[in-house]
What we know:
globular, single chain, Butyryl-CoA Dehydrogenase, subunit A, domain 3, three-stranded mixed sheet, Butyryl-Coa Dehydrogenase, subunit A, domain 1, 3 domains, alpha+beta
Amino acid sequence: MEFYTDAHREIQRTTRKIIERDINPYVDEWEKAEIFPAHELFKTLGNAGLLGICKPEKFGGMGLDYGYNVAFVETLGEINCGGVPMAIGVQTDMATPILATHGSDELRQEFLAPAIAGDKVACIGVSEPHAGSDVAAIKTYARSDGDDYVINGQKMWITNAIQADFMTALVNTGDGSKYQNKSLVIIPMDTKGVVRAKKLDKMGMRSSDTALIHFEDVRIPKRNLIGQENMGFVYQMQQFQEERLWCAVSALRALELTLDETIEYTRERKVFGKSILDNQVVHYRIAEMKTEIEMFRALLEKTVQRYLKGEDATEQVSMLKLKAGRLSREIMDACLQYYGGMGFMNEMLISRRYRDQRLGSIGGGADEVMLGIICKTMGIAPSRK
């Protein structure tokens, strides 16, 4: 990014060292196991200060602006899988932003500080079996009982769920409008009634543990409420901005590396007496994809700058999230084609990238949701009832 200083690049150097030493050598093993040692890796990242780059210093963060987090997240794209970066992103940009900005000091000391240090693993509980894209349709209910909430329901497709120490969960706390009856609460995962019901078998992101969670009369103190009661939908929409920015930033290096790897492979692979790359249809297509990546980077930088200035970047973030998913699908598919039969083998990195990146158009807000938001900001969508 053009705005990177030596300080931004130092964060990238630190991150890259950890990736090269503690992550990439083990990715194949973690992919086969369908889980990675989150507590161990997060502690390494926490010791390096990388889990709280723009979180308050009072709770162990660096207190830097979001641009430094962008430098960190961009470098995570150099990990040779999608599951581990996604799990890290849940910890830094999906389960903790609203806790950092709206949580009480007591709550932040108990949960945010150890998350920043890497001593606790976080997960985010929004989606449910019948409420993925339609966040307002969640059914999990937190009934008031004196100084406690008693929670019943379930959460689906929860990243880090098998290893998580706590969940930032969106729950219904009232019976009014579905946009004004929700709250965000912290649920310790060792609380009685929290059931890690099923570890899910996924097409991609294999090294990231994902689960279905049941809540059966789970009792938590009301002090675990983040911010104000019944403001949870608003808070979650705010939190989605960082999550969707994370999705866009994290896709960038994977796209660039995939193109570089494909150029190298097609240059060496010979068919009909010449390299695949020497075919005009191939090197022209690669030139087109390079152009698309550079345009994506330009929009990303513009959007980050708006976000850093405190301007409303909802439209641009939604465009980025949409483009990240679609561009990843396009480039991974096109590049895999040039690998021929080898591209279809699980041993090839391009095969893993193809599977992992497919989630980009679904998770964190599906393409269709992003299009709806963009249409709304343009004033061409029907009003919500």
